[in-house]
Every structure is written in structure tokens, then in C-alpha cells.
Amino acid sequence: MLKLGITGGIGCGKSAAARRLEAHGFRRLDSDQIVRDRLLTAPDVIAALREHFGPGIFAAGGVVDRPALAARVFPVPAEREWLEALLHPRVTAAWAEAFAAGGADTRWVVEVPLLFEKGLEKWFDFTVCVALSPGVQLMRVVERGLAPEMAAQRIRAQWPQGRKIELADFVLWNDGAPEFLEAQVGRLIRSLPPA
């Protein structure tokens, strides 16, 4: 089994790189998707969120309103840390479950936005940082529909890109065209040992 943890700042292209690895036979886990699809619908998580934040972060039908939740946690570091403490152990439990169900020759790529911030690199054989220039990063986050000030706030909530680059085993630079990223992914795969 070979496990890659892929990280990078918001808008840097973690998912784009992970999808390319998936196209080359890796099994992909998206930590944000685990949160969206499994955790924010889990009764114990919903109960904890309701107790901590009250009804204001819920939409009709009792589902978590993710933008409302984000508006509460991103400006207040203590609230963000509380939410991370609630979710991260459940995310890593989902990884462990998936790894156990995979075969010994499975190659995994796991998208982990806070891989280094939360000391999660020990879960992986190799870490990969997807990086790009700050101006391009801000532009891409704004293109997702966030106001520039909210985009900048989300970027500031994460470690500086340079620190992640220093800690990563491999770096994929994503300022260019999709073909440039694909070529780097190909080189990365050729650099890795077999599963």
C-alpha cells in the first residue's frame, strides 16, 4: 500500500492534482467531501454543532448551512479550532476505514487541506504540496464565488504556502495550463516506489 497526502492552500488545485492521480489508478479520498457528505449529516456531529452554535447555522430541514457555518468559524480562530477538533478525528477514522478495506497493493491519494497544520503527515508515505503564486491563488478563490475579502480571509487562515512547500516531499506547481500540471503528476508517479 502506498499513501500520498496532498495539500496546498485554498484554490491551489489539490483536487485537480488528485483527480489526475486518480486517473492514473490511485484511489482518491477527499477530506472535504468526507466532511460534507458523511460528517455534516451525522446525528452526533449535528447535535454537537447545534449545541455549540445554536440554530443559526442550520437551513430548512435541519441541514447544516455550510456558508453560515463558515461565516461563524473563519473570522474567529477559537471557533475554527473547536470545529476542527470535532471533525478531524472523524475524518482520520474514515481514512483508516478506507485504507483497511483497500488491498495491500492499493495506491491512495488523500486530499488534506490542513495536513501539516494538524500534524497529519504521519498518516502518509509521502506528502505533496500543490502551489501557485499568491495573485493566481486569490483570483481562483474569487472565481469560486467568494468576495475578495472573504477569499483573503480563508487564505490567511491557512499556513503560508512557503512553509508547506518546505515540509512537503514533492511540490506540484499549478500556475500554468492543465497540461503542465498533468506533466508534473506524471513525473511524480515515476518518482514513487510501487505500492
Largest beta-sheet characterization:
5 strands, parallel
Count of DSSP strands: 5
CATH architecture of the domain at 2-32 and 89-189: 3-Layer(aba) Sandwich
| Low-pLDDT regions | none
Name the CATH superfamily classification of the domain at 2-32 and 89-189: P-loop containing nucleotide triphosphate hydrolases
Structural class of the secondary structure composition? alpha/beta
Q: What is the CA-atom radius of gyration, in angstroms?
A: 17 Å
- Number of helical segments? 9
User: Mean of residue pLDDT?
Assistant: 90
Strand content: 5-15%
Kindly describe this structure.
Helix content is 53%, strand content 13%. The chain is α/β, with parallel strands linked by helices. It has a domain at 2-32 and 89-189: Rossmann fold. The protein has a 5-stranded parallel beta sheet with strand order 2-3-1-4-5, sandwiched between helices. α2 crosses α5. The model has no long low-confidence stretch (mean pLDDT 90).
Task: From the structure above, extract its key features.
alpha/beta, 5 strands, 195 residues, single chain, 9 helices, Rossmann fold, 5-stranded parallel beta sheet
Describe what is shown at a glance:
The protein is of the alpha/beta class.
Blueprint of the fold:
Layout: E1 2-7, H1 14-23, E2 27-30, H2 31-39, H3 43-53, H4 66-73, H5 77-101, E3 107-111, E4 126-131, H6 134-143, H7 148-156, H8 161-167, E5 170-173, H9 178-191
Parallel strand pairs: 1-3, 1-4, 2-3, 4-5
Helix pairs in contact: 2-5, 6-7
